[in-house]
Specification:
Layout lengths: L13 H8 L12 H31 L5 H10 L10 H29 L4 H33 L9 H17 L3 H31 L11 H14 L4 H11 L13 H12 L8 H26 L3
Helix pairs in contact: 2-3, 2-4, 2-11, 4-5, 5-7, 7-8, 7-9, 8-11, 9-10
């Protein structure tokens, strides 16, 4: 009796190919990640407490006082409080806003981007959809009141009697109600929607282009992207997203406390647009764009590049 074991070789057939092609490559829906909420809040607090608020103050000063040069704006801000003048509105309004809007942005943008990608959208289109959803959610949930109060702090007349920022907020609320302390919220929503749609979309497109040019079309090419690659993409996304500066100038004009002859007391987006054009022409809509480019780059580096890095680190993508 032959007891020698036989080696049975199964030939490669189309079955193997079918098995490979049937691998489920669909994007899986991840559960709600509270890590993303905490991460978003932490990154936004870091962003605003470092370079973010100085850029914001300079941008607001220039957009509200469109006759000033950058040098004059810097001098006026410094005269209001030295270096601390560049952090006007940071405590409590910018911190309240940052601790909530960052969480809302990363969480909402992740959800919308996932839905878009699951429906077959490219990373570029998915980034735009995520950014739009996150930006609108920010404006109507957390940003309206805080953005208004930050603008009030920068543009209001500083009297000899020091007034509490909470007293000012309370006075506005008593006089104008909820609508008063959310003045310009629709302009904020339009700005945020276009801001983050551009930042996420352009950054994703730039990142894909950089990866393709440096690492080719391999399936794992995106895994080889370095922190420098992602930072460069974020810088491009942040700078190019400032195309919507006219919306920001309109928003600031609606919320500004600057008093001027002929300036309407209550402004809509349309009336603010007409007022700016009548007094400053087309160039008035681009006042403050230089510090805003700096702000856009810094925010995008923090919220997109660092956001992607830490979400990958914590497994919450």
């Amino acid at each position: 009796m032959n007891t020698t074991p036989t080696l049975k070789i199964t030939p490669l057939t189309s079955t193997t190919t079918t098995t490979n092609t049937n691998v489920d490559t669909t994007l899986k829906k991840k559960p709600v990640s509270y890590k993303n909420l905490l991460l978003g809040a932490t990154l936004n607090l870091f962003e605003v407490s470092t370079l973010g608020q100085p850029f914001e103050v300079v941008k607001t000063q220039l957009a509200a006082n469109r006759g000033q040069s950058l040098k004059q704006a810097l001098s006026n801000i410094y005269a209001r409080g030295g270096l601390f003048g560049f952090y006007q509105g940071l405590i409590p309004w910018a911190w309240i806003e940052a601790s909530t809007k960052g969480a809302v942005l990363l969480f909402t943008a992740s959800e919308f981007e996932h839905l878009a990608r699951s429906a077959g959208a490219s990373p570029f289109l998915g980034g735009i959809v995520g950014g739009m959803g996150g930006g609108i959610a920010q404006a109507y949930t957390t940003m309206g009141f805080c953005t208004f109060m930050k603008t009030v702090e920068v543009t209001r007349h500083k009297s000899a009697v020091k007034e509490s920022t909470f007293k000012i907020a309370n006075d506005i609320f008593k006089k104008e109600g909820i609508a008063g302390i959310n003045k310009g919220v629709n302009a904020v929503a339009l700005r945020q929607c276009t801001n983050w749609a551009s930042r996420f979309g352009i950054t994703r497109f730039a990142q894909e282009s950089i990866i393709k040019s440096r690492y080719g079309d391999a399936a794992d090419a995106h895994l080889r992207a370095t922190a420098i690659d992602k930072a460069m993409a974020s810088i491009l996304g942040g700078a190019l997203s400032c195309w919507n500066q006219p919306i920001e100038v309109i928003r600031i004009e609606m919320q500004s406390q600057v008093k001027a002859a002929g300036r309407p007391e209550k402004m809509s987006i349309v009336s603010a647009t007409k007022y700016i054009y009548a007094n400053n022409g087309m160039k008035g809509f681009f006042r403050g764009i230089t510090p805003r480019i700096g702000l856009g780059i810094w925010q995008t580096l923090c919220m997109v590049a660092l956001g992607d890095h830490f979400r990958a680190l914590f497994g919450t993508n």
